[in-house]
What we know:
Elements: H1 3-8, H2 12-21, H3 24-39, H4 44-64, H5 76-91, H6 96-102, H7 110-118, H8 122-147, H9 165-185, H10 193-207, H11 212-229, H12 232-248, H13 251-258, H14 266-284, H15 295-298, H16 318-326, H17 328-347, H18 349-354, H19 357-376, H20 386-397, H21 403-410
Helix pairs in contact: 3-4, 3-8, 4-7, 5-6, 5-17, 7-20, 8-9, 8-10, 9-10, 9-11, 9-19, 9-20, 11-12, 11-19, 14-16, 16-17, 19-20
Amino acid sequence: xxxxxxxxxxxxxxxxxxxxxxxxxxxxxxxxxxxxxxxxxxxxxxxxxxxxxxxxxxxxxxxxxxxxxxxxxxxxxxxxxxxxxxxxxxxxxxxxxxxxxxxxxxxxxxxxxxxxxxxxxxxxxxxxxxxxxxxxxxxxxxxxxxxxxxxxxxxxxxxxxxxxxxxxxxxxxxxxxxxxxxxxxxxxxxxxxxxxxxxxxxxxxxxxxxxxxxxxxxxxxxxxxxxxxxxxxxxxxxxxxxxxxxxxxxxxxxxxxxxxxxxxxxxxxxxxxxxxxxxxxxxxxxxxxxxxxxxxxxxxxxxxxxxxxxxxxxxxxxxxxxxxxxxxxxxxxxxxxxxxxxxxxxxxxxxxxxxxxxxxxxxxxxxxxxxxxxxxxxxxxxxxxxxxxxxxxxxxxxxxxxxxxxxxxxxx
Length: 412
């Protein structure tokens, strides 16, 4: 193992020893978080079972078991404001029961706090990230295997173990951003072969989804990482990899790439018409919106006559969908969440200059994944996709992981 690897690597035996040292509820919560990480690329049902069981154990541990550094709840103000305004929108909708039922998605926010409390040091966080990337690589290899058995075109878009290709693409953007940050920041060339392999599997699998919004998302994440890392070498390398991936792709993939930004493309034009319709919905109910799960019921009245699609369940844009569904105040709170998150990341910039690989990675990887998620969400409502959002909340927690224990040990 390299010298750099010795500083951050956590062996299976050491992980087991540290796990046994935890109080019972904390130990169970960590095991549930591990289960969530291993199952989220394969089964939403299993991932939710592990996540919500772990959240219950974590909440119980806050009450009964001491924690080094005490409990921490960063970003609680914007999250609370968003939750309150979401419930208000549900109560004021045309079908409050239906909207309140859909409001259960707010519980996914707890994954952010569960993850950052379940991790006690940066090596545990890195260990879980590597597990997530390993599980993602398995899902990507499966996806590529299926893709090789059928024609690769828009009629055969790969969805992996998910129900639809958009979910697979959204998940791969977040996992791909983590793999990218790991490869760029890890300086030991001999120890990077596995992350290169994982990255290539993810990229190839992402191409098979034909999801242009996800391609934009992974490109945004890559730009974020190379700018923060200030690595011209990696910038050139990533451009070369992207060019090679496009040139070596089947003709159908190349045509799809060329259609990015082409307003004459049928689906691109349809999105513009949909966004115009969404703006009319926002103008009609700016304060509380139409309520959760109510876009499909109301959209037809506002659909542009030129649009081919007169019924839709979402508006292919996070900002516009949240404004139409929950109102402009809820949208402001939602934007506040991300502004506060990036501000917290900026305050941690000293870790990137002075910290170990683990701390530098966690500081950069979380915002990189969020950048990819938000960029992709400008052309798709990925905030409404549970598998994607749950993984995004885990990635959001990365910069905060291990800080409580480190502060306690340093006497802060």
